[in-house]
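Hi, here's the filled form for the chain we discussed.

Project: internal
Contact: R.S.
Residues: 174
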Amino acid sequence: MKKFFYTLLFVSTAILTSCGSDDDSSSDDDGTVNFANTVSIDDQTFDVTTAQSDDFGTNTENTGYYNVDFILGGTTADDEDFQLYVETFSAGDSFSEGTFVFQDGSDISEAPNQFFNNFLFGIPTLMVGDTQYFATEGTVIITGTSPNYTFEADLTTEDGTVINAEFSGEFTSN
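And the returned structure, exactly as it came back:
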């Protein structure tokens, strides 16, 4: 049921996303890294063309944590839309940038100060079989303040697939 809910949320947000920034990856003379704004899975890399953040505030289910969801989207080489969805939690009454680690399950009694417990990558028009991935471990690093964030993810799915994502720019909000 939980996967159905997240799949439904995932598909509905695909319709509502807006364009974000899409800078090319490079390094400036001063060593500053400009992100490629991509999502990579196995040997495929997709350009991120939309970025959205949904601020849910202090979460009633996870008392003591502040909830912000991040969604990256774009189009595959086969012209299929894709989305990467991650639900983050920061201890306290506001969002805090930093490194978010995967927290399995709904028991957060021993959760770190920053964690994510829901991650989904998929192609909403297909959402079956090999086109939908749920993370089971990894980290997400988020820096900046709304609406401009830098988002980096290094995740492993339940079948061992590695997903990497990077985006730096404006995240629209709902």
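Let me know if anything looks off before we file it.
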